[in-house]
Amino acid sequence: MTRGRFITLEGGEGAGKSTQAARLVEALERQGRRVIRTREPGGSKGAEDIRGLVVRGDAERWSARTEALLMFAARSDHLERTIRPALERGEWVICDRFADSSRVYQGVAGGLDPDFIEALDEAVVGPDQPDLTLIFDLPVETGLARAGTRAGDEDRFEGKGAAFHARLAEGFRDLPRRFPGRCVLIDASGDPDAVSARVMAAVEARLG
Ligand SMILES: Nc1ncnc2c1ncn2[C@@H]1O[C@H](COP(=O)(O)OP(=O)(O)O)[C@@H](O)[C@H]1O
Ligand SMILES: [Mg+2]
Question: Could you list the residue ranges that cross the membrane (predicted)?
Fold first, then answer.
């Protein structure tokens, strides 16, 4: 059995990750591939329980260090129960956020030592790095305006203030320099069809 491919979608609030994850799954299924869509924090029963702790409540509820540990605890369960079994079955895994969100939210924007995050990544993700990471790049205000139209109470990170979100955008934009073999910047402006076309071009260019 050929191992599946692992694609992650990253970027700030409202950049269009969830919209494009659904569209990418549909496009790959039309090509006859077996695909699962999953997300972080979450993607397995235990990880979804942890999600409730991190995406709700007061913006200052957790320190960046504690938040990183919660995210990697969730990620460990997600990898064990969902991602690795699917890849081993030969399925493609499309994941809405993954470890780069820890690098950028808790590291770049949260001020946590990047070496601490890389040590967690090595211990938890290890060799199961994404084959491709699509980074959705959009002006912060456009993203927050889009995100503000969504329903629900999972708004803890949206409450962190303009300076935090500006650092997030910088952090995501810097990822292709840090991980050039894996990360591609996607212009997330324009309508969903235009963004989907850029996504499919990047997937075809990198994964064939
Ligand atoms: N290209 C786009 N143009 C305008 N609105 C969009 C676009 N893509 C997504 N949206 C809308 O913006 C909001 C945020 O998109 P979403 O996919 O949830 O972003 P993310 O998952 O990155 O936070 C949603 O209401 C979605 O329907
Ligand atoms: Mg989303």
Answer: none
* Residue pLDDT, tens place only, 91-129: 999 999 999 999 999 999 999 999 999 999 999 999 999
130 Cβ contact list (under 8 Å, min separation 6): 6, 7, 8, 95, 98, 182
* Cα 1 to ligand 2 centre (Å): 32
Residue 151 has pLDDT above 80, yes or no: no
196 assigned to a ligand binding site: no
Domain that holds residue 192: 6-207
**1 part of a folded domain:** no
How many domains does the chain contain in total? 1
pLDDT in tens, 185-199: 999 999 999 999 999
Q: What is the CATH number of the domain that holds 41?
A: 3.40.50.300
Residue nearest to atom 11 of ligand 1 (CA): 146
12 within ligand 1 shell (Cβ under 6 A)? no
